[in-house]
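Quick one: structure for this chain?
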Amino acid sequence: MPATLAYASTDPVEFDGNTSSTVAIGTLPASFTVSAEVRVDASSQWQHVIELGAVEHVWNAPFRLEVGIEGQWYVSIGDGASYSEAAIQGTWTYGSWTQITVTYDGSVCKLYENGQLLLTFTADKDVTLAGGSLILGSFQGTQRYFQGGLRNVSITEGETPPGQ
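Got it. Here's what it folds into:
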């Protein structure tokens, strides 16, 4: 099994809708925080932005963050057998950078946009069972749709809400 994933990069990454980047291999810890600045230039409902999971299991990633049409976010937490997911209307706009943070403590997932809590939902899954690749950009089978950029991406152990 791959080592527990810890990833941090301040380098901006640009996506033209036809590219993605596999940047790390590992497993998510039982409690984690995913944080990134996201700029969406084009998207249709729903497109992957950050995903941890094996490429061959497109819809079965232990963690998935997606964007929909303007303002929409979607987050999914899974354990390799079942998934908890939620969609929420946020406030992001096309072409602007938005800070997004997702925390997970082993049973509760929280989604923050620009430091403001938008969503809390129960996701009682053991994500440490499923490892894979950390994929930035829009991997969805053989099609990639997300256009925009990512910067200041990090995945850390423990639940760390914005401002703490």
